[in-house]
Design a protein that fits this description.
The protein is mainly α. The chain contains 16 helices and no strands. Helix 1 packs across helix 5, helix 12 crosses helix 14 and helix 14 packs antiparallel against helix 15.
Length: 285
């Protein structure tokens, strides 16, 4: 059970990172906001702003389902030199081109849906690249931990490996900002224009700045944790303070006003995720 949980956490983290990353890149490159308003497509897809926050919230659930499905195949994927290619091929065949439903970009979708051919093609770059990066990163990470002992993993991991782990943890914490923000929105009588907020570059960059600060924090504090120089509770407290202050100061500088209570509440969940992720992924000798 413990081995599965460790594997599941890796799958969830890698899925969330690749899903959110490729989604942000391709939605801007291909202008999904305008694309989803096209004739026929607008009857098939919700407007981009209508579902993006909730789509992000459900990605850990999808990641868990992937982990359950891949767990019986894990040993095979690790043993094969090109395990990532096998995994990617599974995604391409069963998840994209030969789905049982008439999904966009699938053979059944082309045969049985009214969706125009260009829409079947325009979605392929994102889903093919996302599943490719997912396969590469997951197999690389899982092989790395299976080949090296925990002590070797903790003491001799290189700079880029530690940086990658910090990015993964911070990306997962990024979801905490979305959950916290949406929770506050639903629990407090605020009047927020999501269309304007989604199109405001200053609003979008606010959490990007917090993400960068978290990467630096996790990269540094994980070494202190492995060296038994800091407790998990202190990691959580410092992360909570950092995440709250960064959001508070950003809003104060760029929007002219900020609520300390709100930013403290928003910073709570990312701090929890960071602390739990460090405990799970950085094993002490």
């Amino acid at each position: 059970m413990k081995a599965f949980m460790q594997f599941a956490i890796k799958v969830i983290l890698v899925h969330c990172v690749t899903y959110i990353g490729m989604g942000m890149i391709m939605s801007n490159l291909l202008d999904y906001r305008e694309l989803f308003q096209q004739e026929v497509i607008r009857d098939f897809m919700l407007p981009l702003d209508a579902h993006t926050p909730f789509a992000i919230l459900f990605q850990p659930v999808r990641g868990l389902l992937f982990a359950i499905a891949l767990w019986p195949l894990r040993e095979l994927l690790l043993q094969k030199k090109q395990g990532w290619l096998i995994l990617w091929s599974i995604f391409l065949v069963f998840g994209i081109f030969s789905t049982t439903a008439a999904a966009p970009s699938s053979i059944e979708g082309i045969l049985y849906s009214k969706i125009p051919a260009w829409y079947h093609l325009i979605g392929l770059p994102e889903i093919m690249l996302q599943t490719l990066f997912f396969s590469l990163l997951l197999i690389w990470w899982d092989k790395r931990q299976s080949v090296h002992s925990e002590s070797q993993h903790n003491t001799s991991a290189g700079f880029f490996s530690n940086l990658f782990m910090a990015v993964v943890v911070s990306s997962f914490a990024y979801i905490g900002y979305a959950v916290g923000s949406l929770t506050i929105f639903f629990l407090t009588p605020t009047d927020i224009d999501f269309d304007s907020a989604a199109g405001d570059i200053k609003t979008q960059l606010m959490f990007v700045v917090a993400f960068i600060f978290n990467v630096v924090y996790v990269f540094y504090i994980s070494k202190q944790w492995l060296g038994n120089k800091i407790s998990l509770s202190m990691i959580f407290i410092l992360a909570w303070i950092l995440d709250s202050i960064v959001i508070f100061l950003y809003q104060l500088i760029f929007f002219g006003a900020s609520s300390l209570i709100t930013t403290i509440l928003i910073g709570f969940l990312p701090a929890v995720i960071i602390a739990l992720s460090i405990r799970q992924n950085y094993k002490k000798v």
